[in-house]
Write a structure and sequence with these properties.
The protein has 196 residues and is an alpha/beta fold. It is 35% helix and 26% strand. It is globular. The structure holds 5-O-phosphono-beta-D-ribofuranosylamine (GRF). 5-O-phosphono-beta-D-ribofuranosylamine binds at residues 7, 9-14, 42, 77-78, 98, 100, 113, 166, 169.
Length: 196
């Protein structure tokens, strides 16, 4: 399948998908990487792998770019922008997002990146984790595809917790993209079933 990855930052989640396609774990090809941040290191990762890398902030132009590439799956990987209803409707059930918490905790408007881990530590929960979900018109509200938990340690700092969660993000994002490309994800209402 033709994959597009939307980023805003370092692109470590993007790198995971690049590697997964290269070693054939993922039955797909990344056709384009689009960032709303010109400085995103993820654009360099794309270029280093001969993948079309585009800086574009205008969502209408992004939709055009995606249509031109006949994209089957859009992955929001550290994309720090809420996509519009129009965008969601253009690519119904073809957009997935990785979020660094166990949705519906610590998510929604304003909960992204390090802020999530800060809130987790402040609140004092003992278990956090990461979630891959389909994107609907809400913020982090779409049907959950995969979740994996991460224990919060007493001596955790923002950095140590962030690092441990990021590792789990990579793991479940690769798995979710693999399952999507293998057409093993079935959506029934809000529940996602995996057809092994
Ligand atoms: C990270 O904070 C991650 O939790 C979230 O997006 C941020 C950047 O990830 N998903 P990446 O390294 O750009 O993939």
């Amino acid at each position: 399948l033709n994959i597009a990855v939307l980023i805003s930052g370092s692109g470590t989640n993007l790198q995971t998908i690049i590697d997964g396609c290269k070693n054939n774990e993922i039955n797909g090809k990344i056709k384009i990487v689009i960032s709303n941040n010109k400085e995103a290191y993820g654009l360099t990762r794309a270029k280093n792998n001969n993948i079309k890398a585009v800086y574009e902030k205008d969502e209408t132009k992004i939709i055009e770019l995606l249509k031109k590439e006949n994209i089957d799956l859009i992955v929001l990987a550290g994309y720090l922008k809420i996509v519009t209803k129009n965008f969601v409707n253009e690519f119904k059930n073809k957009i997935i997002n990785i979020h660094p918490s166990l949705i519906p905790s610590f998510c929604g408007k304003g909960y992204y990146g390090e802020i999530v881990h800060q809130k987790v530590l402040e609140y004092g929960v003992k278990i956090t984790g990461a979630t891959v979900h389909f994107v609907d018109e809400g913020a982090d509200t779409g049907p959950v595809i995969i979740q994996k938990s991460v224990i919060v340690k007493d001596n955790d700092t923002l950095e140590t917790l962030k690092k441990r969660v990021l590792h789990v993000e990579h793991e479940i994002l690769k798995e979710a993209v693999k399952l999507f490309c293998d057409k093993k994800l079935k959506l029934k209402g809000r529940r996602v079933f995996i057809n092994e």
